[in-house]
Amino acid sequence: MAEENKPVVLTFGGGLNARQRSADINIEECTEGENFNLDFQSAVLAPRQGIILRAVAPNGEPSRGIAQLVKQDGTISTIIQAGGTVFSWDGTDTGFIEVGTVSPDARLRGPIDSNFTLDNFIIITDLAKIENVKKWTGEVFTDLEHNLGVDFKAKYVTVQTERAIFANVKTGTVDTPHVILASKQGDSEVLTSTTRPAAAASAEDEWFLPTPDLRPINGITFFAKNLLLSTERGRLYAIEGLIAGKDTDGLPFTSIEDFHAGSAVSGDEALINIGNDVAMGLPGRIETLSGVLEFGDVETNDASWWISPLLDGTFGT
């Protein structure tokens, strides 16, 4: 029980306490260290095992991209970009098979939510926008077929409600980093660069939208029933209503709305869904979306204060 004129010291039963002097910290608490295994049934903070070498690409080139296809029957197929060669990889030390070639400067990406499960292939984009949008069927690595009539490149793609949604795109020689293209529902290969949602003939039709601030899109992720996208050192936007067409009042279902002004996310891969939150990369630090929305620009939202010295010189900092 608290006594008059005596301080009350609040402690907690686990975790990392770096705010009090050592004499005031419970013996069960940790005052220094990092990279621990977290286990609520353990009374000891044990360091994680180190990262081990799993395999080396046959050509000895650095890995510049990865994509993992997950089919309807649950089978998984992984491809790795090593330099200018794309290999399928079965997870073993020597299980590499060459399936294609790309520019060695490409940066292929095929995140889990770029699986077009309806047709059993994964859509692959290039952060460098050198290569055309690709697809991997588990057997064939090739350009994604489409109806645009010109080369099609994109930095980002996510598949939601049976639509492939591309962001930061280039059609032919026209580079539009501020534009989103959404495919026809149920067909990832039917696209448009001329029809907005309000002008679509039906709810399943393809559409395009520019970002309101016209800044380059540098991330797109689905979180908490919202499709979020960020612009370079700009804002976070939410795409509301992924179904094109009009409601009973004649208003478009699909629109881009402000979600977080002044987010200032920087870098090509700086908006990442981490399960129960979204991590945002800003110059010199990493913040969590929930922390920013709940508390504003305070230390509570900063997930990177332990590693901040290591961020110096990384892309976008």
Q: Could you give the topology of this structure?
A:
Blueprint: E1 63-70, E2 76-82, E3 85-89, E4 96-101, E5 108-110, E6 115-116, E7 121-126, E8 134-136, E9 141-143, E10 152-160, E11 163-171, E12 174-182, E13 207-210, E14 217-223, E15 226-231, E16 236-240, E17 255-260, E18 271-273, E19 278-282, E20 285-288, H1 289-295
Parallel strand pairs: 1-5
Antiparallel strand pairs: 1-2, 2-3, 3-4, 5-7, 6-7, 7-8, 8-9, 10-11, 11-12, 12-13, 14-15, 15-16, 16-17, 18-19, 19-20
Structure description:
The chain is mainly beta and 317 residues long. Among the domains are: 10-52, no CATH class; 62-144. Helix content is 2%, strand content 35%. It is built from one helix and 20 strands. It has one helix at 289-295; strands at residues 63-70, 76-82, 85-89, 96-101, 108-110, 115-116, 121-126, 134-136, 141-143, 152-160, 163-171, 174-182, 207-210, 217-223, 226-231, 236-240, 255-260, 271-273, 278-282, 285-288. Strands 1, 2, 3, 4, 5, 6, 7, 8 and 9 form a nine-stranded mixed sheet that branches. The chain has a four-stranded antiparallel sheet with strand order 10-11-12-13, with no helix packed on it. Strands 14-15-16-17 form a four-stranded antiparallel sheet, with no helix packed on it.
